[in-house]
Amino acid sequence: MSKLCENIAYTHLAERFGTPLYVYSEQALTNAYQNYVNAFAGCQPLICYAVKANSNLSIIQHFAQLGCGFDTVSGGEIARVLAAGGTADKIIFSGVGKSIQEIAFALNAGIKCFNVESLPELDRINQVAEMMGQIAPISLRINPDVDAKTHPYISTGLKANKFGIAMADAERAYQYAAALPNLQIIGIDCHIGSQLLDLSPLVEACERMLALADKLAVQGIALQHIDLGGGVGIAYQNEQAPDLTAYAAAVAQMLAGRNLRLVLEPGRSLVGNAGTLLTRVEFVKQGEEKNFVIVDAAMNDLLRPALYQAYHHIENAEENGQPEMVADIVGPICETGDFFAQNREIAAAAGDLLLVRSAGAYGASMASNYNTRCRAAEVLVSGDTVREIRQRETFDDLIRHELACLG
Ligand SMILES: Cc1ncc(COP(=O)(O)O)c(C=O)c1O
Ligand SMILES: N[C@@H](CCCC[NH3+])C(=O)O
């Protein structure tokens, strides 16, 4: 008996669409979004899904239909949101290196807010807005110097990180922005990192942001919103995911009596556990020191284990009574870093289908064509129905941009 995604067997999906295959549960996406809406109901938040976590158009469309806003970090992501039916007035634009073209594109679209990370960026947005005869709505991303206690590659709120404006420079930066004629200050924001399992750094960052907002109010700079950045971490293994209700209660208490709208930018916690990567076992190989389960997905499909030594739970789609062995589960790519798990207990034989869990966030969106491998197909399951939301690439897709340029 195969395990199911909603009402459909994973084995059926693999046979119909081939492997590697990303499978998402629509119900899980909806539930994750509703959890935020319900937990933060008291703060009337604008939830802006961080598109980078999974930028598939159908997933963006689903969130847009639920009323969600979007956090974007490139012109391409803004174009995706607009193409999928998201409205510009719910788009915020983050990132340390926005180009002139991206700023013009975002202004032209009429986005809600630019999250600005430096003084040169303030100047650039002001100049582009002036050239276009517009006023750009902005928020300053402040680096609160709070340790998010997460993997160093995805910790973003420390002095040593490239992100945001230092707390010590924040008031001066706001005064500077207030003097630029083509900017309108509407908010303050921070984002201290991803996969946070402890709420206290998030609460501490919020306290620091509010203390700053209070000082700004005294100086005549009144803000409309506070944006606390990404969402909480998720359970990949046996971690305890933070309690959203407790986070919301703490934020509601801090916001009480202040006229500030709350904005949140969750990514991972909206899509991470809604997605599974399906991969077929090609061979089981007994090396001199180790067993290897060689599968047809690779680091180009899901980079997280190679990049962050991240854990993903992996199981056989069918309980087939095979004995468990200890093995490295690896892809076909020519790199020793191309693994999904090391020294993992797994029951698997050639031809079996494996489920790589919690792959909905930073999976397909970080995929590449390394080793000239075709990008996997993606499907969205809703009850008894399934819809292909990205077609598998073909060899022709892979070579056509260069083929057209061959001398
Ligand atoms: C500016 C910004 N906002 C939101 C997010 C989403 O974070 P998460 O996926 O942890 O919710 C990120 C990624 O860490 C980010 O860089
Ligand atoms: N790509 C990272 C998260 C980065 C968040 C981007 N700000 C991950 O897979 O966990």
From TrEMBL:
- Which positions in this protein are listed as binding substrate? R268, R304, Y308, E335, Y362
Q: Which GO terms describe its biological process?
A: lysine biosynthetic process via diaminopimelate
What's its catalytic activity? meso-2,6-diaminopimelate + H(+) = L-lysine + CO2
**Record domain Orn/DAP/Arg decarboxylase 2 N-terminal: where:** 30-271
**Keywords, in A-Z order:** Amino-acid biosynthesis, Decarboxylase, Lyase, Lysine biosynthesis, Pyridoxal phosphate
CDD domains attached to this UniProt entry? PLPDE_III_DapDC (cd06828)
One GO molecular function term?
Answer: pyridoxal phosphate binding
Which EC number applies? 4.1.1.20
Pathway field of the UniProt record reads: Amino-acid biosynthesis; L-lysine biosynthesis via DAP pathway; L-lysine from DL-2,6-diaminopimelate: step 1/1
Q: Which cofactor does it need?
A: pyridoxal 5'-phosphate
Q: Where is the Orn/DAP/Arg decarboxylase 2 C-terminal domain?
A: 22-360
Give the residues annotated as active site. C334
Pfam families, A to Z = Orn_Arg_deC_N (PF02784), Orn_DAP_Arg_deC (PF00278)
Residues bearing N6-(pyridoxal phosphate)lysine? K52
The record's top EC class is lyase
Domain of life of the organism encoding this protein: Bacteria
The residues that hold pyridoxal 5'-phosphate are: G231, E265, P266, G267, R268, Y362
Name the InterPro entries for this protein.
Ala_racemase/Decarboxylase_C (IPR009006), DAP_deCOOHase_LysA (IPR002986), De-COase2_C (IPR022643), De-COase2_N (IPR022644), Orn/DAP/Arg_de-COase (IPR000183), PLP-binding_barrel (IPR029066)
| UniProt cross-references to PANTHER family, sorted A to Z | DIAMINOPIMELATE DECARBOXYLASE, GROUP IV DECARBOXYLASE
Q: Which family does it belong to?
A: Belongs to the Orn/Lys/Arg decarboxylase class-II family. LysA subfamily.
Q: What does this protein do?
A: Specifically catalyzes the decarboxylation of meso-diaminopimelate (meso-DAP) to L-lysine.
Return the NCBIfam families for the record.
Answer: lysA
- Subunit composition? Homodimer.
Identification of the protein by name = Diaminopimelate decarboxylase
The coding gene here is: lysA
